[in-house]
Amino acid sequence: MLETLNTPHAYPGRLFVVEGIDGSGKTTQLGLLAKWLAARGHRVFVTEWNSSALVKAATKTGKKKNALTPMTFSLLHATDFADRLLYKIIPPLKAGMIVLADRYAYTAFARDVARGVDRQWVRDLYSFAVRPDLAVYFRVPIDVSVDRLLARRVKLKFYEAGMDMGWSANPVESFRIFQSKVLDEYARIVLEHDLSVIEAAGSITDQQRQLRQIVSDRLQEEAARDERG
Amino acid sequence: MTREADDRGAQGGARPGTYYGHGLPYAPLADYPGRIIAIEGTDGVGRSTQIRLLREWLEVKGYGVVETGWTRSELMQPTIELAKGSNTLNKLTFVLLYACDFADRLEKEIIPALKAGFVVLADRYIYTAIARAGVRGVDSQWIRRLYGFAIAPHLVFYLKIDVDALARRVLEAGGMEYWESGMDMKAGDDIYDNFRNYQRQLLKEYAAMADEFGFRVIEGRRSITAIQEELRRQVGAFLEEAGAVPLAGL
Q1: Quick one: chain B helix, strand, coil %, rounded to 5?
Q2: Residue A198: inside a domain
Q3: Which residue of A72, A173, B142, B244 has the smallest Cβ count within 10 Å?
Q4: A156 is in which domain, residue-wise?
Q5: Mind telling me how many Å the CA of A19 is from chain B's nearest CA?
């Protein structure tokens, strides 16, 4: 069995991952981190969840027709991930760059299981993933997340709100139910995969300071390890 | 390996009509009246012809029949065609797209048909995916766990053929095709050599699964009629034994 997600990688580059539910602010934090790393002379590559051209078509068809089941949703995202891993993540890691991933396999662990997919199955599914050098989880109370999203957008997205599960016809209520389950799964994942936690209810600057500290520590540790050979 | 680890994936010994592994926790299976009959075998061996004839025969006898075929899901077909057309398909995405297609058909076609008491004729099943992945060097335990959500069929027929007979048959039927020849594996430019090498490896993978998954092996070089008679005899006996009484004779 493949065990790469649980084994340190041997690429010269570094893989840093941010995780958290929608409205946790992780994308904002990752953007600021990228600016800082680039300003310090690092070569940075940013990759987002669910962004490969290959499966965009199918995700769209599925979403339009409201036809995705928890299983096909899970497998489509795994396909997308495999595509990005091989074309967008591993090459920059081989080139010694810093890869910043906005969501990683842990997102699938949390969301797919919240939709009713088997917990162990989805972990086996992603066992081909490269283990991140650092994974930071932005933990946010469900109310804060809902407030942020409502302030920003007119409408919650169908799958983000878990509307496919039919738990509530009200998008905000559905989002609350679904994302609460996602939060429960993240709590488990944090322990299981040793994610670093940042409380995402604090100010943007505070969070960024913590993030830069964690990343900086990690880079120094890695550099020291590389020097030792 | 522990027994528990074994239970996670597709393997021999699973009771027909149940999930191989963890399955779909949100879609628990009951003792449904339908039956899954899978016909396996490499491209060009004559599966579709046999399925068409078998369906005809079953319907005349009064059985409700639903067909399901590889890559034919409404959700995935356009994407798989797109991916084959562009050059972006690597072995993992290849495997996962097929799994997604299978999952879609399982939930939208196969399970509803089982509930309603249909005979589901599957033109290829997960064994094709396992064989193709095996040839491409995908971890065999990983792919079996992936297909742990599949339902073990009640019968699996494997139409067996040798590479020489297969090559002649495919050439007579219109020629060797890119994917059937494993050209994506970039072993070389000669399609005839590639076809033979690729199919030889595939046949080896199928052969390795035959015992494990209890394939009923049928010699694919025999005439269409002879193969069909054999299929009807075995399918008829199985369905009667299963208590599914046909209408013929009324």
Answers
A1: 50, 10, 40
A2: yes
A3: A173
A4: 9-212
A5: 23
The reply to whether A37 falls in a domain is yes
CATH of the domain at A185: 3.40.50.300
Domains of chain B as residue ranges with CATH: 3-162+214-234 (3.40.50.300)
Q: Note whether B141 and B23 are within 8 A (CB).
A: no
pLDDT digits (tens, 9 = 90+) for B203-242: 999 999 999 999 999 999 999 999 999 999 999 999 998 8
* ipTM confidence score: 0.89
CB pairs under 8 A between A and B: 101
Number of domains in chain A: 1
The structure's pTM equals: 0.91
A207 belongs to a structural domain: yes
Report chain A residues touching chain B, CB-CB < 8 A.
1-2, 53-55, 57-58, 61-62, 67-72, 75-76, 78-79, 82-83, 85-87, 115-118, 120-121, 124-125, 127-128
Cβ neighbourhood burial of A122 (10 Å; 0-12, 13-18, 19+): buried
Burial class (CB in 10 A: 0-12, 13-18, 19+), A2: middle
